[in-house]
Amino acid sequence: MDAPPLRCHRLGLQPYVPVWRAMQLQLRERSPQTPDALWQVEHPPVFTLGRNARPAHLRRPGAIPVIQVDRGGQVTFHGPGQIVLYTLLDLRRYRLGVRGLVELLQQGVIDTLAEFAIRASARSDAPGVYVDGAKIAALGLRVRNGLSMHGLALNVCPRLAEFERMDPCGYPGLVSTSMRRLGVRADPEGVAARLEARLAELLGCPTKAEHVLPEPLVRVLARRG
Q: pLDDT tier at 1 (50, 70, 90 boundaries)?
């Protein structure tokens, strides 16, 4: 049987908290028939702390909001110019565990960067994707009963100065980079489309573009209004 299409939603620029709450809502309400989805979004500047994050690794947040969330991992920065791709998947459909999903997401980023002549790699001691030792993509997941949320963040052209306010992955001195810093002037939407296509290929399913906001996000935003 062919795998069902992976629904690809483009959320645009959205505040972090409503999208996070919508992911939680989707996770609580989904059934075995719920389609899997990728939510691609950019967030206004925000720092998020994973479940096991040490606040000491966020050194100078300044006026940027700081939010404690339910993903794994340490401190992460999100901001405009960064592709955030949330993976709302039933891992049992793909016979994946958590480690398998991490490796698949990393490989998807590595393959996508290779299309832009950027040679990247993963590290065994720190999830994410790196170029010459500098971090270009972060991963943070939550998996419950085989269902995933959160996902990855790829630096296309964000302000790298904000990353200097934290210790990425909890490693003091770890440098962050971006596609633009590496000399690639690419449109984030175009990069996101290539990344979505590659992840779907690795999962073994086609993609289906959705031109409306995900229904759980619509509900969350309506309550806020």
A: very low
